[in-house]
């Protein structure tokens, strides 16, 4: 059944008649095209160490050593938030800019390709209703985002009057007018995601 409607899908769709057989000499097949026996492209066989994880977009990469230094090894004093996917830490980057460093759980089943897709989405979603992505780190099984620091906390913190960290002080209670303004901004952000991204 289709997701939108009542028509039935064909249980066994016909094969694609436009599919061409693979060409011989494919560089990814391990044949005569110059790849390795494992099917890797030319030039990748003789690398030392793990592959460099730099994405082909204009978002700065941050080193894990630098982030460890700036967050006191991701210690409790720098912790400003926790969620189901990881923790958020406060740091001041080498540029002097304040940042919220979101370190995803290493036990998360998300592959590097999912992280890469998230970095690309954040990079292209530049809007007044989103915090900006300042950089990322993809080192030693760590997946880390660096966002612009929101001085009033996350949207959840603002709406519920508390920060998502144990022992945090309660925040201010919002008026209905303030809540309406936040809802309008959130709706504009969602509209941007659906229309522009």
Distance between the termini: 28 Å
Placed side by side, the strands forming the largest sheet appear as 1-2-3-5-4
The profile of the biggest β sheet is:
5 strands, antiparallel
**Tally of helical runs:** 4
CATH architecture of the largest domain, by name, is 2-Layer Sandwich
Runs in which pLDDT lies below 50 for 5 or more consecutive residues are: 1-49
Class of the largest domain, according to the CATH hierarchy? Alpha Beta
Taking Cα atoms only, what radius of gyration do you get, to the nearest Å? 23 Å
Strand content: 15-25%
Class from secondary-structure proportions: alpha+beta
Percent range of helical residues: 10-25%
CATH superfamily membership of the largest domain, which one? Phosphorylase Kinase, domain 1
Count of the domains? 2
Number of strands: 5
Mean pLDDT: 73
Which word captures the global form?
A: globular
Secondary-structure element order, as H and E? HEEEHEEHH
Q: What would the CATH topology of the largest domain be?
A: Phosphorylase Kinase, domain 1
Protein name: Probable protein kinase at2g41970
Region (Disordered): 1-55
Binding site for ATP: 103
Organism: Phtheirospermum japonicum
List the helices and strands and how they pair.
Layout: H1 64-70, E1 79-82, E2 86-92, E3 98-104, H2 112-124, E4 133-139, E5 142-148, H3 155-160, H4 176-196
Antiparallel strand pairs: 1-2, 2-3, 3-5, 4-5
